[in-house]
Design brief:
Blueprint lengths: L7 H11 L21 H15 L8 E3 L3 H9 L51 E7 L20 E4 L16 E4 L8 E2 L3 E3 L5
Parallel strand pairs: 2-5
Antiparallel strand pairs: 1-6, 2-3, 3-4
């Protein structure tokens, strides 16, 4: 799992290669902030581009892709099933949520290491909500029920909460909601994971 959500600066390499407009106005002043205003399909296309760019550097059998929601949750909660990445009590000094009154994204890792997950992943609570690979299907999670079908046209799971999230809802590691895969907004970004391909 990537330690941080993808930043505006890293996304700009893709933007330049594709000859398209960066989705964040004035991103140059927020190079180290997470990229936002990307649809689920944009995040998937970015991963494909990155795989082609780095194909000779990746370990055999691994690709870069969006994490499934189960992978995302494990990276956020750890083996002990924490309510927040750092523990079971909310702390506004460990994440960028509504309680901090910043009302915008912050540089990735600003709340690290105090807000990190047990696996060292930063910003998994607050800053931006994150797209996952998974379709929004009922829990409990079942990997073989079709929820990881990238070709189905349906809502996708978003995890982690954002800078507008309230402490008792979105920033909790277990909280999940679905967004239309075409949704574009300033509260959603993504991170990548190096993992096995998902078989349809």
């Amino acid at each position: 799992m990537a330690r941080y959500p993808l930043t505006n600066e890293f996304y700009n390499a893709y933007i330049k290669a594709k000859g398209i407009k960066h989705p964040v106005d004035g991103w140059e002043k927020k190079k180290d902030h997470p990229v936002t205003c990307v649809k689920w399909t944009d995040a998937m296309t970015y991963c494909q581009w990155l795989n082609n760019l780095l194909k000779t550097e990746l370990p055999s059998g691994l690709i870069l892709r969006l994490p499934t929601e189960a992978e995302w949750e494990k990276a956020a909660r750890g083996a002990d099933g924490r309510e927040y990445p750092w523990g079971n009590s909310f702390d506004k000094n460990k994440c960028n949520t509504f309680e901090g009154r910043i009302d915008d994204t912050t540089p990735v890792g600003l709340y690290s290491p105090q807000g990190d997950s047990p696996y060292g992943c930063a910003d998994m609570s607050g800053n931006v909500s994150e797209w996952t690979y998974s379709l929004f299907e009922p829990y409990p999670y079942k990997a073989n029920d079709g929820r990881e079908d990238e070709h189905r046209v349906s809502a996708r799971v978003v995890r982690g909460g954002s800078f507008v999230s309230l402490e008792w809802i979105d920033p909790r590691c277990a909280y999940r909601y679905g967004l239309n895969f075409t949704y574009v907004g300033s509260i959603v970004g993504f991170r990548v994971v190096a993992a096995s391909p998902i078989l349809s």
